[in-house]
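Lecture 7 notes: from sequence to structure.

We start with a single chain of 368 residues. Read the sequence below before looking at the structure.
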Amino acid sequence: MFAIGCSVQYIEIKKIMGGKNMKKCMAFMSCVLLLFGACKNNGDDDNATTTTTTAVEATTTTTMVSTTTTIEDHIGLFYNDFEPATGPGEPPPGAQGTGPWATRIMLATSSDGLTFTRTQDVVCDQAGVPNLIVDHDGYLRIYFIAWQESGNPQGNDANFLAFAIHNPDDRQWYFHKVVLDKTYQPGAVDPSVVLLDDKTYRLYFMADIGNFDLKIFSATSKDGRSFTVDTGARLDPDGGVFDPMVLKTGDSWLLIAGPDGSFAATSSDGLTFSTPSAFEVDGKRFHAWAGTALPRGGYRLYGYFTNARDTITTVSSSDGTVWHADGITCLTHEGADPELEKGFTTDVGVTLLPDGTFLMAYLALIPE
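Now the structure, written as tokens:
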């Protein structure tokens, strides 16, 4: 299990989780101390959105997005408002295990959404919790946590929510900070973004409101960059909660959160959720990192069973209610370039592309 984005992906906080895994708790507390005072968000909201028609071609060597929109049409996002760090970063003092300072976002493609092949493309370093979508204008976006604690020539920015958008004309990724109209100390982490029918975006995230009181919140946006925080918490169970994954399933919404899929709830509007319970498939606990609707109907979740935390696998449903295990491994070490990755985690983002294929953003360990 890995600590991603100081989001306590692998952390069971001793204070609220019955005294387990003290070393992992120390990693989280170290991250929190670093994050205090480092959560200033900057950005502007000057980006007009336009409707485009896209066709996405994914190969084993590169990821290309063909679109009728030119760079000039979408110039508001095709620049960097921060420069991503390169190479591995420095962990916080006392940190145990692997965290976002040690991982990079890489890509893999699939024709069936079950078994994936690496493209060998590196999106950025020192990143965690990738959430991959095709936005309302047909562009690929990866929302993630930028660690930025080391390796950035412009200075140390610590953890913050960010996204990368892919320009199909020059085949480059451009990076932006996510701007919230409310400040959280030590910060907002663990992004999960859903496209709404009115062409807006809803961001679900975890934030600590003080004394390790972790809750799942949401925010809405017209451009997917500057967000207005919605009133109240989406999920506020007893105990620690983090790493939300939200999937719209017809007229309902499914929210699954960690640790290890401990909390699953449904909603009719994506704002008010039912009392959560553990998410189990075929009698086993499952934690979902990503979810998508399937081209021929039904839904699929990507994540891991708690008895096999190192294996990226899937579960599927025809109605978004009853789920079954697909019994496959989505990504193995086969084809991994040791100069680009020395291992990978189960933390992934997956989206269905307009051409019916699938794209995965996964976290790879950065070679020294």
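The chain has one helix and 23 strands. Keep this in mind for problem set 3.
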